Amino acid sequence: MVSGRTMEAAVPLITSYSNRRREVQAFDDTKAGVKGLVDAGLGKVPEIFIHPPHTLYKTSYDKCSEFSIPVIDLERLDKDLVTRQGIVETVRYASETFGFFQVANHGIPVNVLEEMLQSVSRFFDQDTEVRRQFYTRDYSKKVVYNSNYDLFRAPAADWRDTLSCFMAPSPPTPEELPAPYRDIQMEYAKQMMKLALTLFELLSEALGLDANHLNDMECAKGLTSICNYYPPCPQPELTQGATPHTDNGFLTILLQDQIGGLQIRHRGHWIDVPPLTGTLIVNVGGLLQLITNDQFKSVMHRVVANNIGPRVSVACFFSTAMMPSTKLYGPIKELVSEDNPPKYRETTVKELASHSFSEGFDKEAPLLAFRL
């Protein structure tokens, strides 16, 4: 039983298996994640984490400045109608062109952002035995810690551990949350919900709709907080922090530390999304692309592995995927016409999320199954 061994004993056991399934199971049984491998002093990337060379796309450094995503200052949002309309227009351009933008002066104090990142580090810095009590692959639980949600299906694992918390509409009790970030997570979720309402107003106006349209559709009703921990990698050129993917919710708000590594796919190039102190990254999810009938784009993005780390990020996904609901979502009727007919069939949030989950993390076009 691998889980009863020390990580030092588990590492040679993992690398001795020829069958990938057994190697993956051995790794998962340690319940120590990628951080456990690093803590054990592992000098090489285990085979289950090695990605085929052709999938490790090169960064287009010469395009990073040319294609840099917009940074939107929200401080003057309510100054006057002209200023607000300028912000709305930038949100529209970014959502149609990049699928990503950054927001500054969003109302969340920098010290709250920093404390959130530090609390994630505190969780992963705990002894393995303490972390193990939260380790599970049962996603019906409100608090889930593990490494690679698609570990047993993906062709290659990513160099990443994750702590997930389902914070809305039915949040866990404070006692259910890990102690190192219990208080800040509750506060951070409240701040994120407030910001999301504002962002969905701007996105609604960018679509030419009433400001309350997307909020009335309950786009901000569900919130899952995904705390990612990317340990330093001894051979970052062989693996990835996060395989290229798109998000399946309505919207994602991301907080990343100063190490960087997030990249988006734009016009056939991988370009950096550099860390900017105090800003938050916003990206369109698959459900928002579906209900806007492809006006807003959910684009591929990834995280490259690094040997500096650990890198920490907190992604807030706005989706009700964990709720059993029969509510159907299809292209918004005000956005379709004879010249622009619906491109997607109606679906529930849970159906789209379940499809994406079953297909795996690295599918480029999870919405294809829902196209008319």
Automatic annotation (TrEMBL):
<dbReference type="InterPro" id="IPR026992">
    <property type="entry name" value="DIOX_N"/>
</dbReference>
<protein>
    <recommendedName>
        <fullName>Fe2OG dioxygenase domain-containing protein</fullName>
    </recommendedName>
</protein>
<dbReference type="InterPro" id="IPR027443">
    <property type="entry name" value="IPNS-like_sf"/>
</dbReference>
<keyword id="KW-0408">Iron</keyword>
<feature type="domain" description="Fe2OG dioxygenase">
    <location>
        <begin position="221"/>
        <end position="321"/>
    </location>
</feature>
<keyword id="KW-0847">Vitamin C</keyword>
<dbReference type="Pfam" id="PF14226">
    <property type="entry name" value="DIOX_N"/>
</dbReference>
<keyword id="KW-0479">Metal-binding</keyword>
<dbReference type="InterPro" id="IPR044861">
    <property type="entry name" value="IPNS-like_FE2OG_OXY"/>
</dbReference>
<dbReference type="InterPro" id="IPR005123">
    <property type="entry name" value="Oxoglu/Fe-dep_dioxygenase_dom"/>
</dbReference>
<comment type="similarity">
    <text>Belongs to the iron/ascorbate-dependent oxidoreductase family.</text>
</comment>
<keyword id="KW-0560">Oxidoreductase</keyword>
<dbReference type="GO" id="GO:0031418">
    <property type="term" value="F:L-ascorbic acid binding"/>
</dbReference>
<dbReference type="Pfam" id="PF03171">
    <property type="entry name" value="2OG-FeII_Oxy"/>
</dbReference>
<dbReference type="GO" id="GO:0016705">
    <property type="term" value="F:oxidoreductase activity, acting on paired donors, with incorporation or reduction of molecular oxygen"/>
</dbReference>
<dbReference type="GO" id="GO:0046872">
    <property type="term" value="F:metal ion binding"/>
</dbReference>
<dbReference type="GO" id="GO:0051213">
    <property type="term" value="F:dioxygenase activity"/>
</dbReference>
